[in-house]
Amino acid sequence: MENKVLIINTGGTIGMINSEPGNENSPLRPAESWSEIAKEHPILERYKTDYIQLSKLIDSSNMHPDIWKEIAKIIFENYEKYKGFVVLHGTDTMAYTASGLSFMLKNLDKPVILTGSQVPLNFARSDALQNLITSIEIAGNDMYGIRLVPEVCIFFRDNLLRGNRARKIDATNYFGFSSPNYSPLGDIGADIRIKKNKIRKPSRDSFSIEPVADENVLVVELFPGLSPIHLKKMVDGIDNLKGIILRTFGNGNAPTTDEFLNVLEYISNKGIVIVNITQCVTGSVKMGLYETSAKLADIGVVSGGDMTPEAAIGKLMYLLGKNLSVDEVKKYMQIDLRGERSLCEYSFVSSMKEFSQEHKFQIEIPKRIKDEDLIQAVSRITNIVFEEETEAEKEIEIVFSGCEEEKLEPLKIKKKIIKNQENLNQEILLTYKQNIKRLMELYKTLEFAIKSSKKFKIENIYITIYSEAL
């Protein structure tokens, strides 16, 4: 491996030059070589770089997942030759490409830094030179005394951001990008200081690429007055649609009218994956916090957590491109794969169709969950019906326990709920924190049981385990 950085040019403002040399008023065109880009900036000669560009340079408005695949293949073919990679890119879709690449590049242990500029490199007040030089130094890591950042990142005007957490927030400002739900990976000023606790650890497995993306995805943003009929007609008019990113209100809330929910259920039953993300700039979807989002979970919509729209799109395309089952895609959309979300959500569902005095089901604890990363578990029980219809109060006991009999001191979590005529139809929402951590330290399989002295049945039981992302 050479002590060099490979610069990959895809196009965009940073690589534009005047069509007439020396005439700043002449139309801009893409530079045809590195020498055209760098010739007016001798300082760039100090940096050990090689240069390659796409077969056809593009305006980033024309970016496409096929071009993400081309970039991924260039990185793979040159991976052993260079310390890191800098991708020159137009700003408009840079966050989409950074997100898409983060999933396609598997077991990454070198920096891949995307950068661009608001003003072309050869303009007097351009931001391009600092963006380019700093990106080269971060990609070169120990060549310049900088800590390794083994991630796909965006560097833009003193901000080093995780690529699948970044968003373009301003069309012209030099501080054009932000990371709403994850702080920058370093303090970039006169010195470059990488925050060790913010970066992902280099993978111990061999680097590989999965250049797959299924573009049969749609983004739907809710607004007051959105017609469910129009939504259904739109979906029915798209052949082979496989996924929808649903941008909802606040913490993941949506209309609760039967008309709207019936359309979403119709879409979900067609095998189309629906992912719930918030329209808000910051914050996260919290499925089940309010009835307006709990209804979505009931019909099969999955939580996108605090993913950006760009990350949600890139991840859904990637997972669909792997030809996974619908259930597998839903599972992995709720689990952190590349640092794109803050929490992992592991969901389990059971139902009780026949009347009985007891219902039990088991939960296998995912191997990915470490005891120290566990945050809490939440159970949500919907539509309890008792066989005996009386106004008398009915007691329900809910028990979380371990399933391994060899434990000498079995640990159980018990909660009692009193049901009466006033709250009979209300769902039961329970949260388990410190006690569930202790239970999961002892057992790899848990049993969830609901008991009553009166016979009952339940429409659905939802268990969600939350853990910090890896």
TrEMBL record:
GO MF terms listed in the record are: asparaginase activity
Q: Which UniProt keywords apply?
A: Hydrolase
**Source organism, top-level taxon:** Bacteria
All copies of the L-asparaginase N-terminal domain together span 4-199
The UniProt record lists the Asparaginase/glutaminase C-terminal domain at 216-333
Classification via Pfam families: Asparaginase, Asparaginase_C
Q: Where is the active site?
A: 13 (o-isoaspartyl threonine intermediate), 13, 91
Q: Which residues bind substrate?
A: 60, 91-92
Q: Does the keyword Hydrolase apply?
A: yes
EC number(s) per UniProt? 3.5.1.1
Any GO BP:
aspartate family amino acid metabolic process
Under the heading SUPFAM superfamilies, the entry gives: Glutaminase/Asparaginase (SSF53774)
Is Mitochondrion there in the keyword field? no
Assigned protein family: Belongs to the asparaginase 1 family.
Read off the NCBIfam families from this record: asnASE_I
Give the protein's recorded name. asparaginase
Q: What is the protein's species of origin?
A: Cetobacterium ceti
